[in-house]
Write a structure and sequence with these properties.
The longest helix is centred in the first third of the chain and has 16 residues. The protein has two domains: 215 residues, Glycogen Phosphorylase B (Rossmann fold); 162 residues, 3-Layer(aba) Sandwich (Rossmann fold). Helix 9 packs across helix 14. It is built from 16 helices and 15 strands. The chain is of the alpha/beta class. The two termini are 24 Å apart. The relative contact order is 0.12.
């Protein structure tokens, strides 16, 4: 059932429900792509306000997500008072104040939605799990930076003060709220911590234009996404080093941006030492990214805690053969054993086998194009609207 649109006395349509969409900070990764498609699905039916610490740039977010949300589609974009709106020192304290501000706003809305991880809104909410490590236990399990930063007395005091500053509504989102996972793998990992089984909705992936003919492409790999430690870009390079020693003159097109300066510099040094076959493009969006995807035959990822893998799905839509680790959710969307590896040596051998078989490459190319149809934006938007309408109507949205 779709929520109806009423007309005022001047014949203009009024949006029935008020939604508050919260995100700590708008980067330019998979979580933000999924969030933008959710906003596009909802903002023309309901009033959608955004609350965030920073990073909100509608034009740039549309460009990197493939959405076309206009300023007129949205309500207000809200920031906590005094927040610097940039990532800075004292992040735990600013995040704590953001959480308090979200709870302060929540009662003015019919439904609150968390773009990634969880926010204690103090009222019924929907939380999108675009990041598998959404609580402390999972951050420790997957060795996330949040769980690895010092345990000194000063650090513990700082973190404790942040928790006290954030406060609590006394209402546990994990026990009472609806969680939306972006893969079956993420849902299984999260289910140990949720009362309701997470609902699985595959993200929207833009693209799908007529792919470049296979014969017109280069024997080149593309690695696409954020340049950060969990993506293990150094492992990608190590795999392709081995592939080249097996006699294949493949290249690597590395695309993405990074905010962790030391890691970024380490990757830049690795690329510079291999400048004859690695091109580090930095971030690419829109037509530039589509054109590069159309040039490449192969893709590669080394992230073993990927909650879904927007970049991998983009590769599949472009007809690329993506090689992915068995750990994480990417194996779930790729599904082909020839493209799923256990470790560096296994990856090199799997790639070697595919490179030596033209018939295998052609068949895998067609399978990727067929499988990518599961990630159509129209399907995602329909499921999100239906879920939100059930939540607004007070109907069950999940099973225990």
């Amino acid at each position: 059932m779709l929520v109806s649109l009423r007309e005022d006395r001047r014949g203009k349509f009024l949006k029935d429900k008020r939604l508050l969409f919260g995100h700590f900070y708008w980067g330019r990764g998979g979580a933000e792509v999924a969030a933008m498609w959710a906003i596009q699905a909802l903002c023309r039916v309901h009033r959608v306000d955004i609350v965030t610490r920073g990073g909100w740039d509608l034009d740039e977010l549309n460009r990197c997500s493939g959405t076309n949300v206009s300023r007129g589609d949205l309500g207000a974009v809200l920031h906590p008072p005094l927040d610097p709106q940039v990532l800075s020192r004292g992040g735990a304290l600013w995040t704590a104040l953001f959480k308090r501000y979200c709870r302060h706003l929540a009662s003015r809305y019919d439904l609150c939605i968390t773009a990634s991880r969880t926010i204690d809104w103090g009222m019924p909410a929907i939380h999108f799990l675009s990041d598998v490590a959404w609580n402390r236990s999972l951050q420790e399990r997957f060795h996330c930076p949040e769980a690895l930063i010092g345990t000194s007395l000063l650090r513990r005091a700082y973190v404790g003060f942040g928790r006290a500053l954030a406060g609590s509504s006394g209402r546990d989102p994990a026990r009472h709220d609806v969680f939306v996972a972006n893969s079956q793998w993420t849902a299984r990992v999260a289910s140990d911590y949720c009362t309701l089984q997470p609902i699985v909705i595959y993200p929207a992936v833009a693209g799908g234009a007529q792919p470049t003919p296979w014969a017109a492409r280069e024997d080149s790999f593309i690695c696409l996404g954020r340049i950060s430690p969990e993506k293990q870009i150094e492992r990608v390079i190590a795999i392709l080093d081995q592939v080249r020693t097996l006699g294949h003159s493949v290249g690597l097109q590395l695309v993405g941006s990074g905010v962790e300066k030391k890691y970024l510099k380490d990757i830049e040094r690795l690329c510079a030492a291999r400048r004859d076959w690695i091109v580090f493009h930095g971030p690419l969006y829109g037509a530039d990214k589509v054109n590069l995807l159309g040039r490449c035959r192969f893709g590669i990822s080394a992230c073993d805690c990927e909650a879904f893998g927007i970049a991998t799905a983009e590769m599949m839509k472009a007809g690329i053969l993506p090689f992915v680790p068995r750990e994480g959710a990417q194996f779930e969307i790729v599904q082909e054993g020839e493209l799923i590896y256990e470790d560096i040596e296994d990856a090199a051998l799997k790639i070697d086998a595919v490179l030596r078989s033209e018939s295998s490459r052609q068949e895998l190319h067609l399978r990727m194009l067929r499988r990518a149809k599961a990630f159509q934006p129209e399907h995602f938007c329909t499921e999100i609207r239906e879920l939100v309408n059930r939540a607004l109507a007070g109907k069950p949205c999940g099973t225990a």
